[in-house]
């Protein structure tokens, strides 16, 4: 049997000619370039770029990819702070090279993710211009900077030039294909965001983090397709199609949160609501009030409170949801500060967290039948 297999192998080699395996591999390379580009466009960016080493035929095919350009460099680690400047320069150089080489007419997804401040404004502007020009369907800009700290670098600000460009006929036609927009650690005004919302009929997902210039955001319109909103402010909304809302709020008293109930009532199809709450200023003691009865969100199944400390308003908000979300299946109470979620300090215990959990257990006696309470 083994002898027959060996004989068959030799016969196959003779039919294939010299370098049988190489010949089989080259059959793929003989496909039309349009088909090869279609295949590459279904790969991740790093997978697509790695095909450049296969042969001369493949060397620049990745530059025509219309799939994902995920330029996430945030996983790179360095132990010495001074090395950050070195890594920033290397990252920006790499991104600029990719953008200069890319020849595809469109991209489905474009992501830039690294710790960059306003000193890299030109390169960041170039990335935004690239996303618009390539009619990106999903654009993610995450600059991972920290504001408000002494000595912190100046945060990047969405430039007026880009705003002017997207409002031209050419820029407007390019952003109409946008389905997902995520801007983190970048300053942008409500006026610019509202223009995106009103001009992108396909936009379903909007995420805005840590924008010091976003003082107010009005999200409204009967044609709005938005289903997922993640924001740090309390927006004025008419979100008839919203499915998932993540809201980060800095509050100084209970009046700061009065808009929450109106926001939930304005989102009749909401299925999951996550509130990341950070209290600022001293605690103001007041009596707990009974939550009003007003059925909301007949599709709402999961509610999560992040940053629960057990103040009367915390309990009021939880009771409001328990008493009015008629389809609720789970309520999650997370006593970790929103600023620590996802960091190495997330799991650290403290007396404050233990006390908050104890107060959260008061909700057990108020749970409607079939609703699960999870306390972290």
Automatic annotation (TrEMBL):
Pfam families associated with the record: F-box (PF00646), FBD (PF08387), LRR_At1g61320_AtMIF1 (PF23622)
Domain annotation FBD: ranges: 290-333
Organism of origin: Liquidambar formosana (Formosan gum)
InterPro entries: At1g61320/At1g61330-like, F-box-like_dom_sf, F-box_AtFBL13-like, F-box_dom, FBD, LRR_At1g61320_AtMIF1, LRR_dom_sf
Domain At1g61320/AtMIF1 LRR: residue ranges: 167-237
Domain F-box: 28-63
Protein name, entry field: F-box domain-containing protein
Organismal lineage: Eukaryota, Viridiplantae, Streptophyta, Embryophyta, Tracheophyta
């Amino acid at each position: 049997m083994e002898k027959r297999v060996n004989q068959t192998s030799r016969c196959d080699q003779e039919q294939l000619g010299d370098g049988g395996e190489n010949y089989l591999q080259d059959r793929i390379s003989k496909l039309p370039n349009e088909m090869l580009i279609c295949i590459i466009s279904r790969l991740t960016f790093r997978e697509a770029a790695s095909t450049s080493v296969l042969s001369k035929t493949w060397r620049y095919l990745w530059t025509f990819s219309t799939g994902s350009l995920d330029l996430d460099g945030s996983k790179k680690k360095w132990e010495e702070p001074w090395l950050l400047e070195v890594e920033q320069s290397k990252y920006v150089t790499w991104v600029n090279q990719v953008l200069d080489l890319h020849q595809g007419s469109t991209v489905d997804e474009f992501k830039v993710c690294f710790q960059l401040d306003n000193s890299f404004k030109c390169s960041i502007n170039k990335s935004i211009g690239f996303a618009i020009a390539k009619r990106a369907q999903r654009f993610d800009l995450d600059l991972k900077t920290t504001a408000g700290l002494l000595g912190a670098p100046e945060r990047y600000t969405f430039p007026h030039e880009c705003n002017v460009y997207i409002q031209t006929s050419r820029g407007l036609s390019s952003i109409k294909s946008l389905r997902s927009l995520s801007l983190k650690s970048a300053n942008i005004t409500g006026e610019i965001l509202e223009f995106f919302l009103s001009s992108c009929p396909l936009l379903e997902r909007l995420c805005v983090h840590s924008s010091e210039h976003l003082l107010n955001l009005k999200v409204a319109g009967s044609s709005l397709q938005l289903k997922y909103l993640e924001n740090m402010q309390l927006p004025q909304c008419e979100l008839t199609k919203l499915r998932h809302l993540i809201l980060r709020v800095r509050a100084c008293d209970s009046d700061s949160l009065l808009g929450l109930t109106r926001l939930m009532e304005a989102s009749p199809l909401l299925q999951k609501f996550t509130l990341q709450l950070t209290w600022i200023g001293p605690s103001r003691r007041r009596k707990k009030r009974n939550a009003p009865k007003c059925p909301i969100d007949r599709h709402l199944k999961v509610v999560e409170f992040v940053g629960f400390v057990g103040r009367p308003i915390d309990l009021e908000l939880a009771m409001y949801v328990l008493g009015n979300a008629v389809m609720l299946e789970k309520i999650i109470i997370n006593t970790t500060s929103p600023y620590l979620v996802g960091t190495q300090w997330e799991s650290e215990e403290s007396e404050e967290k233990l006390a908050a959990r104890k107060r959260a257990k008061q909700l057990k006696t108020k749970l409607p039948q079939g609703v699960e309470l999870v306390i972290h």
